[in-house]
Amino acid sequence: MTKGYHAVGRAFGRHVLIIEDEALISIEIEALLTDQGFESFDWATTPRQALHCAKGHRPDLITADLRIVDGTGLEAVDAILAEMGDIPVVFVTANSDLLGGQSVFPVVSKPIMPAQLAAACQRVCQQAGA
């Protein structure tokens, strides 16, 4: 496994791709989403890793920070959706101003409020029928 890439569980249950370059925040998101019934997780710190993870195990949900190593979470999400079609997305960031109000996806601010993250993830998954 390379630095910044983490896979937990495979092939069973609902799967999340966490695009985040801060390990502690990734662990926090994973714990919060485990409480919401998600069962397996991939973690990527770069757009390239994120696309690789998504191709290896199609996520039922993507959470993405905006500022990540070697690019942005927005670039990562755009590449994944262009290649794989619609997947529910929630941005989790302290830099929501970088979106300029242009995101069609929910944005959860850091520090993360567990109820806000849970509600946003539930909403996008229900909208997608996931």
Structure overview:
By secondary structure, this protein is an alpha/beta fold. It has a single domain (6-128), classed as Rossmann fold (3-Layer(aba) Sandwich), CATH 3.40.50. The chain has four helices and eight strands. The protein has helices at 23-34, 47-56, 73-84, 114-128; strands at residues 6-8, 15-19, 40-44, 61-64, 67-68, 71-72, 89-93, 107-109. The strands form two sheets. A six-stranded mixed sheet has the order 1-3-2-4-7-8, with helices on both faces. The chain has a two-stranded antiparallel ribbon with strand order 5-6. Helix 2 packs parallel to helix 3. It is globular, with a radius of gyration of 13 Å. The protein starts with 5 loop residues before the first strand and ends with a helix. 35% of the residues are buried.
Structural class assignment: alpha/beta
Ends apart, CA distance between termini: 29 Å
Q: What is the CATH-assigned architecture?
A: 3-Layer(aba) Sandwich
Number of helices: 4
Per CATH, the superfamily is: Response regulator
Query: How is the main sheet built?
Result: 6 strands, mixed
Percent helix range: 25-40%
Average pLDDT figure: 89
Unreliable stretches (pLDDT < 50, length at least 5) are 1-12
Enumerate the strands of the largest sheet in spatial order, edge to edge or round the barrel.
1-3-2-4-7-8
Global geometry: globular
Rg is: 13 Å
Q: What is the total tally of β strands?
A: 8
Say what the CATH topology is: Rossmann fold
Tell me the strand percentage band.
Answer: 15-25%
Total of domains:
1
Topology order in helix (H) and strand (E) letters: EEHEHEEEHEEH
Assign the CATH class: Alpha Beta
